[in-house]
Structure formats: structure tokens, C-alpha cells
Specification:
4 strands, alpha+beta, 4-stranded antiparallel sheet, 2 domains, 54% helix
Amino acid sequence: MSRKDVSKLSKTVRGYRVWHRYFSISIALLVIISAITGILLAWKKDFDVLQPPTQKGISLNASEWKSVEELSAAAIAAVDSLGLTSANIDRIEYRPTKGIAKVIFDTGSWEAQLDATSLEVLSVAKRNSDWIESIHDGTIISEFFKLISMNALGIGLLVLVFSGLWLWFGPKKIRRLKR
């Protein structure tokens, strides 16, 4: 390879270095937010302040469990002081290995855990992991922002990986060509 080709390759690597630096600065905030919230979400089952611990019910036999209507009515009664109604129920999650149902409300990230057999209220607590997850994936702003930010983050990280690899291999190739 000629000296001119080596010079051209060197110029390209220097250009990539500048481009790589500014591109990484532009997505750094998304990476930092995603990393911090991702760490918190990884630990959510281990710290009660992030997500209430899952209780245990009396029976694991699903044929003995109460209906969805009865569970939702009992959960609404349990959170009566919070002013939540059946319209605020986001979802009901059954835990067959625990014999309980978690009734999760969309307002305020509240959760009521009920024994699926007796409808006894085992726990009423706030789920901080839900709002941390909405920060993590961008839904705290909007679904559209989630789509844009997560794609920008994913594509941006791929671009940084490939340009970083070129910045690592490029100088090695230049040194090899100079020899």
C-alpha cells in the first residue's frame, strides 16, 4: 500500500474518532438513565422499598380460588382509603406457586396482595418498581417517546460498538501497513 493510502486511512480514523466522541456524548444521558434504572430493576425483588415482597396464601389449589370479580372487589375494599375504584385496576396477577393474586392499580402504583382462597388482604403497598420501569423505558413521557428513545439507544449503542471496533483496529492496520 502506498504512503498516500496510509495517509488517507489515518485521516479516516481521525474523523471517526471525532464523530464517535460527539455521537457518544449525544446518547450518554439515555445510557446513564437506562443503566441506573436497569440496576434498580434488577434488584427489585431483593429490596422491599422497590417492590413489596410476595406473600403466601393458604392453598395452591386453583380450583379453590375465588373469582376475578370477588378478588377485584376485595382489593378495592382494601384500598378504600386511597379512593381507587375498579376503573383503576391495571391488572390482576396470579401467583400459582404462592396461592395469591396481586391486584395492581394504575393510579399511584399501588398493589393489593390477596389470598386467592380466603380473600384475606395480605399486603397493600406501593410498587416503586413500576415508576422506575416507566423511566427506564421512556413511557414516563409517552409511548411515542419510548419508541424513539429505545430505538435511538439501541441503534446508537450498535453504532458506537462498531465505530469503537474500527477505532481499535484502524490504528493497528495503519501500523501494519507502515511496516
